[in-house]
Write a structure and sequence with these properties.
It is a single chain. It is globular and about 50 Å long. The chain has one domain (about 5-260): 3-Layer(aba) Sandwich (Rossmann fold). It has a seven-stranded mixed sheet, with helices on both faces. Strands 6-7 form a two-stranded antiparallel sheet. Helix content is about 40%, strand content about 25%. About 40% of the residues are buried. It contains eleven helices and nine strands. It is of the alpha/beta class. The termini are far apart.
Length: about 260
């Protein structure tokens, strides 16, 4: 495992727990088994396939162990996989080599994609709450700005994010939400951040979005939202009657947004 740097040297949008997660070979090597048969993995791939039909240069932002990078490479897309985690990129490389797939792997912080020229890709995907893993509102905004920059005019961003109000479904979540009301009123910088023990890493955090917040971030970056699919927190299937209280009933959203021509 890579040595944990002092806090002041951590990349923007990364805290100590996220760095430990990214540096763990154990987590990277166990990624496929841990998420085997996860409903979101099945449904998001189906949704992406229905929308992204013509092969074009695609960047997988926060690729993890390469689930979607491998899938789109098999479909003939020129794929660039971006990840902060060296072990995840190594795991992806091993799997790609075993299948004879060519995938460009790049280690980078999603808040700083200066390794890519402007308008390098036709498609960007940021799935499984990758945006919510980035720590801090300003860092998340910067990551979307960078995504916008590296997309070609007319390019598409596919994004998944969790809904803050998925916590309404259980007593512990409702208690947590009550605490969030005070943080929002006081404009606390970590409002919406849910902390947990995750795969042996203590104090891991994921940001849960309000629908208006997520739309605002995308629009401020310059994107035009083309479609939004509200999905169930358990099954990952589209929620029934999505027009009814969409900001509260969804477990999360898969959004397709476009960079204007």
């Amino acid at each position: 495992m890579e040595e944990l740097p002092p806090s002041w040297r951590l990349p923007q949008g990364v805290n100590r727990s996220l760095w430990q997660y990214a540096a763990s070979s154990r987590i990277a090597e166990g990624e496929d088994a841990f998420f085997e048969n996860h409903p979101l993995f099945r449904e998001d791939q189906r949704i992406l396939d229905a929308r992204l039909q013509t092969p074009a240069p695609l960047v997988d932002l926060g690729c993890g162990a390469g689930r979607l990078s491998l899938h789109f490479a098999r479909r003939g897309f020129p794929v660039t996989a971006v990840e902060l985690s060296r072990p995840m990129l190594k795991t992806l490389g091993t799997k790609a080599a075993a299948e004879g797939l060519k995938i460009q792997r790049v280690r980078a912080n999603l808040c700083n994609l200066g390794c890519f020229r402007e308008a390098s890709f036709s498609i960007a995907i940021s799935m499984f709450s990758t945006l919510g893993m980035i720590r801090g509102h300003d860092a998340r905004a910067l990551a979307l700005n960078e995504t916008y920059r590296i997309l070609k005019p007319g390019g598409t961003l596919a994004l998944h994010a969790h809904n803050l109000y998925l916590n309404l479904d259980n007593p512990q979540g409702r208690k947590w939400l009550l605490g969030q009301l005070g943080k929002r009123f006081l404009r606390h910088p970590d409002a919406g951040d849910r902390r947990m023990l995750y795969r042996g890493i203590p104090d891991m955090e994921v940001h849960l979005f309000r629908r208006r917040e997520l739309h605002g971030l995308l629009k401020n970056a310059g994107f035009r939202i083309e479609s939004e699919l509200a999905i169930d927190a358990i099954t990952a299937l589209p929620v029934a009657s999505p027009w009814f209280l969409p900001g509260f009933r969804a477990g999360g959203w898969i959004i397709f947004a476009r960079k204007p021509e």
